[in-house]
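dumping this here so i dont lose it
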């Protein structure tokens, strides 16, 4: 019987899919995101830096840019090699077949050459994902990895599921299996971008990895929730939001502001004792920008402060009968 990943659509997922489709339709063929080589280069640098930063690479964007320009830069040789390899792997996107296991191995070889002994091959040993000393996820036992990946690619090639949804489900299933000795995170994100680009070519350049980096804790939390549930809904919702929010700045700055404010309200709803510095980290913006967002929300009556600046708390309008002043 063909493999079918456990997954059920819900209203939130359907809404996000429609939202993304609407936004993609708003990108004209001559828009910078679709047609500007200069912007494409900037976004690819941003993508590579963000994806490697998630994995602990210490190089800053200026160093990444210099490396991709062929310049010598000071820094750890391993980190530099990661940048060179990631550029090589992302450059393969136009020629990769997203439904080919051989092409997946080719891309992994490009991504991990000189970094791991089994570059371009499925792992021969078992792996686990740890939080300190605690095992939080055990990958598929090594002897079963080739079969599991063949089943997953077979499903991906034949599923009637919308490509946008299928790309998110695949990303979770890929990370759940953890098919390689190393490089699983960056390969999962690369393949997700590849799948999106085959649905709509303009999405090849969308810096989704940068949005994931800004919400890194949420990324791992969504993976953990779907892992515990045995179904990918939580992760799919997270990824759809990341795709949507990555696309908005290229289509509607006003809508982007609305989304940022909604995220700020959600943060204070979950963290009534939170502060502006923590909010800036949550939103991936400067402290000054976070202060402006808070001021706007207070001015609109959507957010209020109860008590002193030191010991008080935030209240989101509608959460209680009276927000106070």
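and the seq i came up w/
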């Amino acid at each position: 019987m063909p493999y079918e990943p456990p997954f059920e659509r819900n209203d939130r997922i359907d809404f996000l899919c429609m939202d993304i489709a609407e936004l993609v339709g708003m990108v004209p063929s001559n828009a910078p995101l679709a047609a500007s080589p200069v912007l494409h280069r900037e976004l690819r640098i941003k993508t590579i830096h963000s994806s490697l930063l998630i994995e602990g690479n210490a190089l800053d964007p200026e160093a990444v840019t210099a490396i991709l320009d062929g310049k010598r830069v000071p820094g750890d040789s391993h980190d530099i090699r990661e940048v060179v390899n990631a550029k090589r792997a992302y450059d393969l996107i136009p020629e990769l077949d997203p439904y080919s296991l051989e092409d997946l191995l080719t891309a992994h070889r490009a991504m991990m050459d000189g970094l791991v002994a089994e570059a371009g091959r499925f792992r021969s040993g078992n792996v686990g994902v740890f939080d300190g000393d605690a095992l939080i996820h055990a990958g598929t036992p090594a002897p079963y990895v080739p079969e599991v990946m063949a089943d997953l690619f077979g499903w991906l090639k034949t599923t009637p599921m919308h490509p946008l949804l299928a790309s998110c489900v695949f990303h979770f299933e890929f990370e759940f299996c953890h098919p390689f000795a190393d490089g699983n995170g960056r390969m999962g994100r690369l393949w997700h971008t590849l799948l999106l680009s085959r649905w709509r070519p303009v999405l090849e350049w969308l810096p989704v990895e940068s949005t994931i980096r800004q919400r890194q804790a949420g990324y791992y939390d969504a993976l953990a929730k779907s892992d515990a549930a045995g179904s990918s809904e939580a992760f799919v919702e997270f990824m759809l939001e990341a795709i949507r929010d990555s696309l908005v700045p290229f289509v509607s700055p006003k809508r982007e502001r609305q989304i940022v404010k909604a995220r700020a309200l959600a943060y204070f709803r979950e963290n009534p004792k939170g502060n502006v510095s923590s909010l800036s980290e949550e939103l991936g913006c400067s402290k000054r920008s976070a202060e402006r967002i808070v001021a706007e929300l207070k001015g609109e009556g959507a957010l209020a402060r109860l008590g002193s600046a030191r010991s008080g708390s935030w209240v989101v309008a509608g959460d209680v009968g009276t927000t106070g002043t």
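The domain at 11-251 is CATH 1.10.3290.10 (Fic-like fold).
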